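Quick one:
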Amino acid sequence: MFKKGLAIFVAMFVLFAGLLIVKPVKAATTVTKYVTATTLNVRTGPGTTYAIVTTVKQNQAVTVSQTQGAWDKVTVGGKTGWASNQYLTTKNLAEGLKTVGGNKQLILVTANGYNTSSAEIRTFERNSLGKWVPVLTTTGYIGKYGFATYTNMSEGGKRSPLGKYAIGTAFGRYANPGTKLPYRKITSDDVWVDDPTSKLYNTWQSRSNTQGQWKSAENMNIAAYSYGFVIRYNAQRTPYKGSAIFFHIGSSYTLGCTATSQTNVVNILKWLDPTKSPVIIQTPIQELNKY
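Output:
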């Protein structure tokens, strides 16, 4: 009788202990999706009867953390809610672009509208079938006051130019990190002329050789330019339309350039290949269809 009672006790103990075991919770995974509708409402719950939290526009990126039937839980612009996944896609943003037929490498810099310094940076490369393959997706920064059209670009305006541009010389304060681009090592004598009245406007010069030919110039020997490359904006050097537009190292807004971490800059430099006609497109995400 004792043994039978003991066995029952042990069995009940094991069952009770098993109920106390907490199964490990799987880490939540997220995926980036893009809006296909002209505008899409984000709501407080998974249904059209819930209140609207915010509205997102076509091509805008959202972060999806959960799916419940026909609805995705999304985060965008610091707000979280639910959106119909009928109008969301994981489609590659480079596919469908009309202006990159002759290019095999693409850097895409997008922001949510014109007036933000936060940006997403994506790189793509064409495969043997002619399809764009994503290479890198990361965050970065543009001008303090966001993007500007060519009409609104000005020297000292602290905005980054939107548009499609060729990629120029790579540069750095140290030895070539492995890029195939033409590479120029910065010295303490190097400046970039930003004086719109100078014949040397928007060019890289040696201070000692050009002193007196300009009234102002940007020192190139700074930490932000430890590695980077020239974005060939205003290559015609139109006075007052902006100068010294680079892709460089940075962790906050720029004065007109595009910036990301040193690791990202170096990796992109190593990846870029001038034989593949690389270009950079900078645009508000809502206007991506213009390219």
